[in-house]
Write a structure and sequence with these properties.
Helices cover about 45% and strands about 10% of the residues. The strands form 2 sheets. Strands 7-6-5-8-9-10 form a 6-stranded mixed beta sheet. Helix 14 links the parallel strand 9 and strand 10. It starts with a helix and ends in a 6-residue tail after the last helix.
């Protein structure tokens, strides 16, 4: 095939793809940079650029905090990934991750009025990622880490937050955890229980599973067991990573050992973030009035139609079933609130406040199929942002 024929074939293939709605929507990407000021004549140009811009640069050089007032930093975050754990696709690399990162940026703008810039890095080395993001940080008011595989994501987030004085937030961890806690609070409220009354089981000890376990402990869950591929995490296991050893200390007060199915016997809550499969018999063995949050996407750990035969409340990660545990309910409002008060970090108190605010949005409207708001509920982001801003002030991490 000559070059001309190859080009023609590629054109036909592209035309064929663009006949599909999803490819047509993504043609040339989902976002663009636009100006917020007019450039009509030389006077406008002299204010927006040289010579007028020099006055603003000099003022910021003398008083660095003015960068929040006179640049986009006060309302802009970087959405950073290495493409190593993208949705349900796995390690597909930085370029293939960009449609997801663009989508995340669009969600920031639509739901939180926060501008976001996708930054896909061509490295999976922890040191290189930390150094690169730290060098980019002066251009942004916050860093949203996205789709970075565990356990590297834990160290990357920790080191960046130690190094930077702006919020660093790994959404796969904390966004999922915040929305899960909000949904669980409302499920308990609906059925007349308290978190302290519940024993939960988490399937999956990756980024989301670890963060969910931590926030549930902070919120006062009765007990919680976490299971990975090798079974229940407990102090007697010798094959644990540092992160899982910490979980062994802070979870599983009942001292359970064995399999996930063993842990589910008599449990009040199942939270799935593993992508595995849970047998129907294991769900049937849970306590009466149990909650099943089967959040693997696109295939839940147990089909919600089956789970509803045994559970009082069922949630998934899918938009085509009730009670979707969707991170978009959290991260736009969290960053909007943190940026509003120029928070230096996202504290545990801010995360708990976000979960409480999110749960409160529908607290007077609860039904088994409505324990969490829709992402399109206009009350969500403002409620979360206000709660996060207030908690940041209480925690003393604000500069405004």
């Amino acid at each position: 095939m000559n070059a001309e024929s190859a080009t023609s074939a590629e054109h036909r293939e592209a035309v064929g793809r663009d006949s599909e709605p999803v490819f047509a929507l993504h043609r040339r990407g989902k976002m663009a940079i636009t100006s917020t000021v007019p450039l009509r004549d030389s006077d406008d140009l002299s204010l927006a650029y040289t010579p007028g811009v020099a006055e603003v640069c000099t003022a910021i050089a003398e008083q660095p905090e003015l960068v929040h007032d006179y640049t986009w930093v006060s309302h802009t975050v970087a959405v950073v990934t290495d493409g190593s754990a993208v949705l349900g696709l796995g390690n597909i690399g930085p370029q293939a991750s960009l449609p997801v990162m663009e989508g995340k940026a669009v969600l920031f703008k639509r739901f939180g009025a926060v501008d976001a810039v996708p930054v896909a890095l061509a490295t999976t080395d922890v040191d290189e990622i930390v150094e690169t993001v730290a060098r980019l940080a002066p251009s942004f008011g916050g860093i949203n880490l996205e789709d970075i595989s565990a356990p590297r994501c834990f160290e990357i987030e920790r080191r960046l937050q130690e190094r930077l004085d702006i919020p660093v937030f790994h959404d796969d961890q904390h966004g999922t955890a915040i929305v899960t806690l909000a949904a669980l609070r409302n499920a308990a409220r609906l059925t007349g229980r308290d978190l302290a009354d519940l024993r939960a089981v988490i399937s999956g000890a990756g980024a989301a599973g670890v963060a969910i376990a931590k926030i549930l402990i902070e919120a006062g869950i009765g007990d919680i067991a976490v299971a990975d591929r090798a079974g229940i995490i407990h102090r007697g296991r010798t094959d644990l990573t540092d992160v899982k050893r910490d979980l062994a200390v802070t979870t599983n007060r009942a001292g359970l050992a064995g399999t996930l199915q063993d842990a589910l016997a008599g449990a009040d809550v199942f939270i799935g973030v593993s992508g595995g499969t849970v047998p129907e018999t294991a769900v049937a063995a849970m306590a009466k009035g149990a909650f099943v949050f089967a959040m693997a996407n696109p295939t839940p750990e147990i089909h919600p139609d089956i789970a509803r035969n045994y559970a009082a409340v069922v949630a998934t990660g899918r938009s085509d079933h009730p009670n979707q545990i969707n991170n978009v309910l959290a991260f736009p409002g969290i960053f909007a609130g943190a940026l509003r008060v120029r928070a230096g970090r996202i504290t545990p108190g801010m995360k708990l406040a976000a979960a409480d605010a999110l749960a409160s949005v529908v607290a007077d409207e609860l039904r088994p199929d409505h324990i969490i708001p829709s992402p399109f509920d206009p009350r969500v982001a403002p409620a979360v942002a206000e709660a996060v801003a207030t908690a940041a002030r209480l925690d003393g991490v604000t500069r405004r």
